[in-house]
Amino acid sequence: TKNHSYTFTIFGGTGDLTYRKLLPALYNLFVSKQLIAFQIVIIGRRNYQHDEYCEIANGWIRQFVRLPYNDDSFREFCEHLYYYQMDFTQEAAYADLHAFYSAHNMHEHIFYFAVAPRFFELIAKGLTHVPDARQGRVVIEKPFGKDLASARELNAQLEAFFAPDQIYHIDHYLGKEMVRNIQTIRFMNPIFANIWNHDYIENIQISAMEEVGVETRGSYYDQSGALKDMVQNHLFQILSIVAMEPMRDNSREEMHRCQLDALKHLRKASALKLEDTLILAQYDGYLKEKDVAADSKTETYAALRLFIDNERWQGTPFYIRTGKKLDRREMEIIITFKRPLPTADPNILIIKIQPTEGVYVRFNIKKPGNSEEIVPASMDFCQSCQEINRINTPEAYERLLMAVALGDASWFSQWDQIETSWEYVDQLKQRAINEFLPIHVYQPGSEGPNEAAALLAKQGHEWFNQE
Ligand code: BG6
């Protein structure tokens, strides 16, 4: 399939996502010879000449490319680029687009909607004037809706024009190297696979800490908040992979079935005691950020304590935390096993997703010497510390774009997963509002609000921070 001639059309071709992620990823795929026969049609409203656009693209690609940049290969890459000026909100303009495709013999389409979701329907409708689009693929990004109702509406709009298996929902966390490694670490090691359940696991933490604040995205973020921005999508995806039942085969259907099954077994939000479940907080200074309402109640931090009520997980809490303006950028999954003795430390397994990619294991040994004391020892494997691994590890977007080209939707969100997660997050949010859950304040550069530590302390647990 590699030699199919794909046409990637990017709506929103002069936006941030295109410049920072899509073009660098496509360039990497080109340089590493994964994409051979392809064209990229950049759709924008501005009047750029081909060379002008290439010049701009060049600046971004140099800045964000992963593989060594070189002028000759960029020049070749640019021959695959077409800038197409168009107002994509005008339905009449799509007949011309179709004529353009035909004139260039472009028939196998991948449409990337790198635009605000309010334009999805317009573009989908416009593409009915491009007959080849009926066999094409559509790639969309989050935010997919702002709650369950709007997500359903959006989905109905898209599905009026495209079949579900033509629609690829990108969740860029599913392209990250160590997220792709969770199942191997879990299932290919009997030392973990056989004890991956509530009998042996005390608690599971999914921790996604960011150093950055809302930066220039205030108007989007203030309408969203940590639960909708991170938990509903990225962190629920990870949760479902960590918690899912073993797959019976490696098909995409089975992957999605197992993920969905885990999400469906989340203990109902209505059955949880809210103050033992959810901590919301805002960093001090958030209200002064650009495009943020002066009296905003939007959370920039969320900590959750959830349960999956199936045979495997009964009683094991899943702790999730995520926030902005924290003391570090660090994304990890931390599995704490039950103690063999009340006096011994627990075994701990950490899957490190970023910035370090690796695996950490802590175990017990006898203190060296004459003492019989039990002390913890650890092994810390850093995969990304080796240059060769860094070079060979594709960026999330490279992996995902290539998967779209190959028609492999395994590592994309499915509509029913999105729907289930929205439903859950909506219910939690609604309870937070109805029950006047406080929005705490935390200091920028801290580990988050004290209340998040207290949430776990009440259960005799703590957020694990590697010393
Ligand atoms: C995005 C969120 O989906 O993910 C951002 O909208 C967040 O708020 C980002 O910063 C985090 O992605 P990464 O890859 O930097 O961990």
Topology:
Layout: E1 6-11, H1 16-31, E2 38-44, H2 50-64, H3 71-78, E3 81-85, H4 93-103, E4 108-113, H5 120-126, E5 137-140, H6 148-159, E6 167-169, H7 182-187, H8 190-193, E7 201-209, H9 218-221, H10 226-243, H11 252-264, E8 278-283, E9 301-307, E10 317-323, E11 330-337, E12 348-354, E13 358-366, E14 374-382, H12 387-392, H13 396-406, H14 415-434, E15 439-442, H15 450-457
Parallel strand pairs: 1-2, 1-4, 2-3, 4-5, 5-6, 7-10, 8-15
Antiparallel strand pairs: 7-11, 8-9, 9-10, 11-12, 12-13, 13-14
Helix pairs in contact: 1-2, 1-13, 6-14, 10-11, 10-14, 11-14
The structure holds 6-O-phosphono-beta-D-glucopyranose (BG6).
Protein name: Glucose-6-phosphate 1-dehydrogenase
EC number: 1.1.1.49
Pathway: Carbohydrate degradation; pentose phosphate pathway; D-ribulose 5-phosphate from D-glucose 6-phosphate (oxidative stage): step 1/3
